[in-house]
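Students often ask why inverse folding is considered easier than folding. One informal answer: many sequences map to the same fold, so there is more than one right answer. In these notes we will look at a single instance of the problem. The structure comes first.
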């Protein structure tokens, strides 16, 4: 199954005065992402540090980019505009192994 690297960034619903875990719908977003990890759709994920905006990276195992976009669109943070997809890139793994 193809792998993808997804970078999400804060959307218009992001509140810059709040930390990541204090954003609206944090518990729902966290449960959604944990469910994707349990399904093994998301293999690795977490926030990227060192920029002016909140960004997060996911390593995803999905049958297609279309399926991937459909699944990510179900995230409560995506629906509320807290996050948005910045990039989705197909990824060819040449070194190492994913869990």
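Output (designed amino acids):
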């Amino acid at each position: 199954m193809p792998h993808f690297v997804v970078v999400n960034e804060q959307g218009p619903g992001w509140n810059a005065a709040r930390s990541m875990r204090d954003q609206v719908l944090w518990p729902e977003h966290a449960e959604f992402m944990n469910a994707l990890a349990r399904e093994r759709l998301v293999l690795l994920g977490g926030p990227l540090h060192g920029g002016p905006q909140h960004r997060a990276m996911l390593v995803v195992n999905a049958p297609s980019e279309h399926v991937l976009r459909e699944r990510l669109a179900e995230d409560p943070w995506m629906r509320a505009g807290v996050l948005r997809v910045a990039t989705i890139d197909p990824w060819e793994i040449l070194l190492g192994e994913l869990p």
